[in-house]
Amino acid sequence: MDVAHVVAFNLALMAAIISPGPAFLIVVKNTLSGGRQAGIATGLGLSVVASVWVSAALLGLDAVFKLFPWAYVVVKTIGALYLLYVAYATWQSARKPVVDHAKPMHHAFRQGLMVNALNPKSVLFAAAVLVVIFPSNMSLLENGFIIVNHFVFEVVFYTLLAFVMSRKAVSKGYLSAKMYIDRMSALVLGLLGGRLLLDR
Fold it and tell me: For the whole model, what pTM was predicted?
């Protein structure tokens, strides 16, 4: 493994994170409704589980999912239902004042954990990227470096995202269009949940 491998991995990771998916949307939504700390806590929860998925991919969990398809289906279905629940809760709270909608940090952290923990596609994506980018004969130390690199990369990204989204101008814009933004987020999360549920 060399620097080029790490750079390629981080570029692939960046492309995956900034694509409009449930993780990105949850951080944005929680930051706008609960403030910077809620956004950072959500991102930390996402990052912890993302690192676990990378560790699992390095240990060959993707092979387990291929060997036991029912396990993948169970985790995927639970994850899809959770996203649909979050979408429903977001839609229902769209008209509520922001003060009622704000989440404590431990709640935001737990939500970040849940969103990534119940998305088995994460481990399949990680496995595919790892196979394509890195050599197969890496040492335990190199594997550990990949896991730490992934965790730090996601924490930094989501922390920066929370800082940007918590800026006064952005927050003011959110307050003036809260109902529409929340309902749009709910629709997107619902579509993502439905797609995950129906995807074969």
Answer: 0.72
